[in-house]
TrEMBL record:
SUPFAM superfamilies: lambda repressor-like DNA-binding domains (SSF47413). This is Helix-turn-helix domain-containing protein. Pfam families: HTH_31, MLTR_LBD. Gene3D superfamilies: 3.30.450.180, lambda repressor-like DNA-binding domains. One of its GO terms (molecular function) is DNA binding.
């Protein structure tokens, strides 16, 4: 059914979304109220050429990652998202597994927090998306693949991070994220991706194995983070984690005390960092 219907469906939904609804400036004369292909490409992290070929039926068989990105950028609800997967010839993400679907309400929240670095992770701490200021602060998330997009993996596998932690902060963070994975296995027992991640962490990290064997349930508390940015220097930020009921999405927001040096450095990133300081 589907390859011939996928492109027209994307086009119809693109026409439905206004730039303002997507957090973009309307700017200049527009022939239609909806998103331009260039704007959809920006929101989805997909090339304009590829979107053009999909809409015109010259490319078929998009990957699940592409369909997920388009569904998010087009502000599709859960039923529409499932339909887009079906049109792509893919099985919709199974119910009872960790979801990467960002609801339109959460997306609108991200759009309105343009002056705050914000990222969204799934219940297993895989990065789904970060807003432009988050990317300016931590680097372009498009460069991360596979387990590199998982915070727990990066922490226990020793990946370089711009966040500098004391040994006590590392201990608390590791215990809290390991507890989150334990909760994810209980809530989503059918999701083999979570169990596979845990098996690989147990084999790779003695520290993770020790925490996992202890079985402690450690909640997340609001905390402060020191971010060492290669261009603007050290930034001391408050970090809060909000969980979306029903989907277990984790919204991570970084804020600075008004009038502080950290606020000034965030403002600098907001003005020029999104063009010059990513990566």
């Amino acid at each position: 059914m589907t390859d011939t219907e996928f492109g027209p469906a994307v086009r119809r939904w693109r026409d439905r979304v206004t730039p303002e609804a997507a957090g973009l400036p309307a700017g200049g004369h527009r022939r239609a109220a909806g998103l331009r292909r260039e704007e959809l490409a920006l929101l989805a992290g997909i090339s304009v050429d590829y979107i053009t070929r999909l809409e015109q039926g010259r490319s078929t068989g998009p990957s699940a990652q592409v369909v997920e990105a388009l569904a998010r950028a087009l502000r599709l609800d859960a039923t529409e998202r499932e339909h887009l997967f079906t049109l792509a010839g893919l099985a919709p993400p199974a119910r009872g597994v960790v979801s990467a679907h960002i609801t339109p309400g959460v997306q609108r929240l991200l759009d309105r927090l343009s002056d705050t670095p914000v990222a969204v992770h799934d219940a297993a701490w895989n990065l789904i998306t970060g807003n432009p200021l988050w990317a300016a602060l931590f680097g372009d998330p498009a460069a991360l693949h596979g387990h590199e997009r998982n915070i727990v993996w990066r922490h226990f596998a020793g990946f370089n991070s711009r966040v500098i932690q004391t040994p006590e902060q590392e201990r608390v963070f590791g215990a809290a994220t390991a507890a989150d994975l334990r909760a994810a296995t209980a809530r989503y027992p059918a999701d083999s991706r979570v169990t596979d991640l845990i098996k690989e962490l147990l084999a790779r990290s003695e520290t993770f194995a020790r925490i996992w064997e202890a079985g402690a349930i450690t909640p997340h508390d609001s905390t402060s983070k020191l971010v060492q940015h290669p261009q603007v220097g050290d930034i001391h930020l408050d970090c809060d984690v909000l969980t979306v009921p029903g989907s277990d999405l984790r919204i991570v927001a970084y804020t600075a005390e008004p009038g502080s040096e950290a606020a000034d450095r965030l403002a600098l990133l907001s003005v020029v960092g999104q063009q010059s300081f990513t990566g």
